[in-house]
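Page 47, continued from p. 46.
Same chain as before, 262 aa.
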Amino acid sequence: MNMAKPDNQNLARMPALFIGHGSPLNAIEDNEFSRAWAALGQTLPRPKAVLCISAHWQTEGARITAMPQPRTIHDFYGFPKALFDFVYPAPGSPVLAMRIHELMPSIVLDQDWGLDHGSWSILCHMFPEADVPVMQLSLDLNKSPEQHYQLGKALGWLRDEGVLIVGSGNIVHNLQAAIWRDTAHDWAVAFAERIKQLLIDGDHRALVRYRELGDAALAIPTDEHFLPLLYILGLRDEGESLGFFTDKTTLGAISMLSVQVG
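Result:
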């Protein structure tokens, strides 16, 4: 693929993040997770834009939001009115979305979606002024885990142009096994620890083949919350630093483990 050179050679290479977003209530609550996201936003280099791969947007074929003002999508039910009233008015970046499409034509421009809670529930703490442009990239239902991982690799050039790429999901996510308090099943804790160790070991092959790991059917009954992690794995260069934050399993079967590359 013929990639154009970065349009600003003076931009530092941005880190890449996988964030365990957990409950939508984290958007409006003051807790250990929202405070960690706020602190992270203060320490990161200021991005030119954010590209978020959220567990909550799945499409036939990959799509990228390309509207100048993406809407705030309240893609949940049963939560307090204050959460439904919450709006995150970050602008989009149609010009950058178009450039991504031109360089990677399989990613189609989208004018309908917006920002779902996988994006705005974390970004509202990281960038509370909503002054950083945000785009979302959908999860292509037709792609295998390996293909999602490879697409992550192919997006690496954006890091050199000052774009913060954020995968938003949860490495353990089983609502059928939820316990609505701050506790966790032993198997959920063990699975999260195994994923963490594989990340430390740099064993991308095992992580891409996560369905072969013990208790994967319990920890990941559906793929969409795990797949954003594969993009961030693909974005990691050999030998690049890797760290963790919000490392906790809670609500029975929700891992809030988050990963920073670079």
